[in-house]
């Protein structure tokens, strides 16, 4: 079959279904919520532009940025091939990340405190994201890489096929992504969602659709060229990799134990606390050995005073240094305390505690059978990453990457303002 027909519609549909199912598990967490790509806009050459080498160790955050304004009024930070890196696209992604983080933080607060702290939390998170070189670098770096793939896709496919496949992705966006966004941003209707984007992210919802379509086309095209779906390591490949990296599949020693605690001090004397924990320990000792674990958990739920009480006092430790109390740690890791037995009463500065070892597992190497699927995924991921770097290097020589130079002060001004006014998303004047 001719190579120009290999990315035909049936193949595209199959890959689209596979990609949408695989998307959440394969992308970085920040990229799942920060969809990146830009519209197809011709950008003129600039004598002040910097050529960017993807193999460079200098992060994008360290490169100063400026903008150019073109015939449609869009401000650009640079270009990848013939596609502009639009300032509004970078801001869209960063502000969306900030809003998702804001909603997550609000959910952690008691309901009665939320209204009073909304403005403070939103302001802090938004300004933190807009001024973070780490966030900015991640968004811009991934944006550039996706634009490389998107460039290659657009120049490689017939215009009518690009249109048809874009429409397919728009249908998927409306059917699957929109309901998820409505749930994420607590909107009951599509109209409410559009208003949320306009008000909180200060970006047209149509931009979200466009970014989604272009991002997906870029990722699908990358996967097609890398043959990601077609690579299947043999059993011999998997075994060789396992044998060469066997220590990576070791399980650390693990101890599952229970603890009951009684505090003394302000509200209780030491003697009163001792009497209480003696009574609790006796309640466990007075039942049959095979019933003691269950009884220990029940006593913890009723009378223990630490944060593990409602969980039956259970906790798991894998190495020394993970337990705050040195006495408790010594007892847990001591061979002198057999599995199923209780310790003596341990006294600390403000509490008494009794522990019981429920289970000990020695360090062991997981068998090849246990980790075979894990090894397969690792091999596929390493092969895909290596192929991706080669592909990126080839594309970066084909499509020039330019970022316009600018002072740090100018960069902050451009990045912290929005498209329609000079206020932050929370309404505070920025300068």
Strand content: 5-15%
| Strand-pairing-aware structural class | alpha+beta
Arithmetic mean of pLDDT: 77
C-alpha end-to-end distance? 60 Å
- Count the E strands: 11
What best-fitting shape do the alpha-carbon axes yield?
extended
The main sheet comes to: 5 strands, antiparallel
> Secondary-structure element sequence?
HHEEEEHHHHHHHEEHHEHEEEHEH
Ranges where pLDDT stays below 50 over 5 or more residues in a row are 1-6, 8-73, 414-431
Overall structural domain count: 2
* H/I helix tally: 14
Rg from Cα: 29 Å
Helix content: 40-55%
What this model shows, in words?
With about 425 residues, the protein is an alpha+beta fold. The chain has two domains: about 5-230 and about 380-415, no CATH class; about 255-360, Chitinase A, domain 3 (Roll), CATH 3.10.50. Helices cover about 55% and strands about 10% of the residues. The chain contains 14 helices and eleven strands. The chain has helices spanning about 10-25, 30-35, 85-110, 110-130, 135-155, 160-185, 190-200, 205-225, 235-245, 270-285, 290-305, 325-330, 370-400, 410-415, and strands at about 50, 70, 75-80, 85, 250, 255-265, 315, 345, 350-360, 365, 400-405. The strands form three sheets. Strands 1, 2, 3, 4 and 11 form a five-stranded antiparallel sheet that branches. A hairpin with a 2-residue loop joins strand 3 and strand 4 (about 85). The chain is extended and about 80 Å long. Mean pLDDT is about 75; it is low at about 1-5, about 10-75 and about 415-430.
């Amino acid at each position: 079959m001719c190579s120009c027909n290999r990315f035909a519609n049936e193949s595209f549909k199959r890959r689209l279904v596979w990609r949408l199912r695989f998307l959440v598990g394969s992308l970085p967490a920040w990229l799942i919520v920060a969809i990146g790509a830009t519209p197809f806009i011709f950008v003129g050459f600039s004598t002040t532009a910097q050529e960017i080498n993807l193999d460079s160790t200098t992060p994008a955050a360290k490169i100063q940025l400026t903008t150019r304004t073109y015939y449609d009024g869009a401000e650009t930070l640079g270009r990848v091939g013939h596609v502009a890196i639009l300032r509004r696209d970078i801001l869209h992604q960063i502000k969306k990340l900030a809003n998702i983080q804001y909603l997550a933080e609000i959910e952690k607060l008691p309901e009665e405190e939320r209204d009073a702290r909304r403005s403070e939390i939103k302001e802090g998170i938004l300004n933190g994201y807009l001024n973070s070189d780490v966030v900015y670098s991640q968004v811009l770096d991934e944006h550039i890489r996706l634009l490389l793939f998107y460039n290659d896709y657009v120049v490689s496919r017939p215009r009518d096929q690009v249109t048809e496949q874009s429409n397919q992705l728009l249908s998927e966006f409306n059917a699957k992504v929109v309901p998820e966004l409505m749930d994420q941003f607590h909107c009951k209707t599509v109209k409410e969602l559009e208003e949320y984007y306009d008000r909180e992210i200060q970006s047209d919802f149509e931009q979200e659709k466009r970014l989604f379509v272009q991002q997906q086309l870029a990722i699908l095209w990358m996967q097609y060229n890398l043959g990601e779906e077609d690579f299947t390591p043999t059993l011999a490949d998997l075994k060789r990799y396992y044998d060469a990296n066997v220590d990576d599949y070791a399980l650390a020693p693990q101890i599952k134990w229970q603890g009951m605690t009684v505090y003394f001090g302000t509200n209780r004397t030491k003697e009163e606390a001792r009497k209480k924990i003696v009574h609790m320990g006796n309640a466990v000792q007075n039942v049959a050995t095979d019933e003691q674990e269950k009884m220990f958990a029940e006593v913890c739920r009723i009378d223990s005073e630490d944060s593990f009480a409602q969980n039956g006092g259970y906790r798991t430790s894998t190495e020394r240094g993970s337990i705050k109390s040195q006495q408790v740690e010594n007892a847990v890791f001591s061979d002198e305390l057999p599995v199923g037995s209780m310790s003596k009463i341990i006294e600390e500065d403000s509490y008494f505690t009794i522990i019981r070892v429920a289970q000990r597992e020695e360090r062991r190497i997981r068998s090849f059978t246990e980790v075979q699927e894990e090894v397969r995924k690792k091999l596929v991921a390493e092969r895909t990453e290596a192929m991706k770097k080669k592909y990126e290097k080839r594309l970066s020589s084909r499509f020039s990457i330019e970022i316009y130079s600018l002072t740090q002060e100018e960069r902050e001004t451009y990045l912290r303002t929005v498209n329609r006014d000079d206020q932050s998303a929370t309404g505070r004047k920025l300068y």
